[in-house]
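Re: Re: token formats

Sure, here are both.
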Amino acid sequence: MIEAFQFDFMRNALAAGLLASVICGIMGTLVVVNRIVFLSGGIAHAAYGGIGLAFYFNWPYLPSTIGFSLFAAMVMAAISHAVKHRADTIIGVIWALGMAFGIILIDMTPGYNVDLMSYLFGSILTVPRSDLLIMAVVGVVMTTLVVYYYQDLLAMSYDEEFAQIRGVPVKKLYFGLIGMLAVTIVLVIQVVGLILVIALLTIPPFIVEKYANSLVQMMVASSLLGAVFTVTGLWFSYRYNLTSGASIIMVSGIVFLISLAVDKIRGAAQKGSA
């Protein structure tokens, strides 16, 4: 695969994948431990409305999609925080409405020539250098915020009531977390697509969770594992002429299934020895 990196688009693809791995390793860990995977899926699919706005009004893709996704995410966060027993239903409705809104706007776009597959399954090979810079800046900002609020995030993630007793501003922190998640999802959609983004966010942290001794270890290990998945998936896509985003997630999914099988065998062995 080394010869492939003589091309700018392959170098950009690798850089985008590695940046996405770091961002997803950090944010995905918080998604998994806070059990907001379904809400993440709602934001990802609602983001399609922002894509539709960008095409219909000929606005820049990233600002339009991030703006719409942040709005949808704040609505979902408010609902999930206020009426938790009905949150999944309402998030599902917003999820569907966001996608429908985006598709209708794209249908109405004059001179319709949109490649929907690139947004559904990613277009990592077409990520421009300007977007790499944005991803790097966002990655640095998110990492800085997570480091600064690490103790509060740790308390909120594992015991929300205890965090409130300690004086942690749980509601503001929760909304901030959802906002960062929305930005993360929009950036990663370019790499693996709207349908597969949740897999990249959740598979590495889920695999690592049982081996990590702390939240920070889980974030670092998830980032490294995501990087391995990305590089391996890119190699398969280049070697066998496959869709890059789907290849990355297929590698992730196979390792995920292997980890489940290993855990089951290990559990059976321990039960047998007992």
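Second one below.
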Amino acid sequence: MTGGNRQKRPLHNCCNYSIMNKNTLIKHIVERLSAAEIDYPEKIGASKEAGRDKRQIEAGVLIPLLFETNRSANSNEPVFILSKRSTAVSQSGDLSGPGGELKPFLDHFLRSLIVHGFPPLLGGAALIHARERGKAAFDSIALFLANAVRESWEEIRLNPFNIRFLGPLPPYRLRLLAKTIFPMVGLIEKKWEFNSSREVEKLVEIPLEAFYNKENYSFFSIRLQDNMTDGTACGWKSPCLIFENTTGEVETLWGATFNIIMSFLDIVFDFTPPDIHPEKIITKTLNTDYLTGNDRRRPKFLDKFRQDR
């Protein structure tokens, strides 16, 4: 939910971000995110209630936004910096923001440091707006921000001093896993040197304008390997974004990260994605280790997946 009945802009409208300078756009993002309904305390409570029968995972995720200079236009271009997951971890090949499971003791300790200004990533208007939500909501935001920032350092060596918190996004419940994601939008002050790690193959930059090109949208369909099923398609598809970078490499953004960014665009820019032709479909075959990484055991999500068809 986005906290208001705002009129949607059509896709062909390039949106006001294109005529804003960097500082004005950042201010706009902070103000819009501060008005979003997030319900963090309620979602955490619901997760614990549902977890009586099975373990529920809560995870903070950073949605990194960098303003990159467009030399040809002499302007700043908002770019999402996403991680392409390596074959050593679950969901290999997918694009996501850095993040991972909450570690209560460590993340509560880091939360206290962040709240007291070390590092100074939670400050200014974003801090004021977060406190205005009330103590329970503020504590939850600060906790999952600490979680996301810790994971960002561990996965892609993004220095906490290089991040400025812009605001939270509504939680996202994963369909195939007992997991709730609490996304945090962070401004990356400057580019940093990244070397591939065990968890991340490379970083992928997707400019904001890519989401305003209707030709970039398609449906994404999942197929299971023959040794995981009878060889038939799963009968499930969802929207995705296909993006080709300047070197000709094509990346697919789908699933949780796609939906989280769509939530960001809706809240901040009143964005409505385009209608997709029903025959425009790309298919991905899931390997047996898609949700287990190097653990080669048969994924337990298959029965759940078939039930959701």
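The helical segments are 22-34, 40-50, 104-115, 124-132, 135-156, 255-269, 301-307. The first helix runs from residue 22 to 34.
- S.
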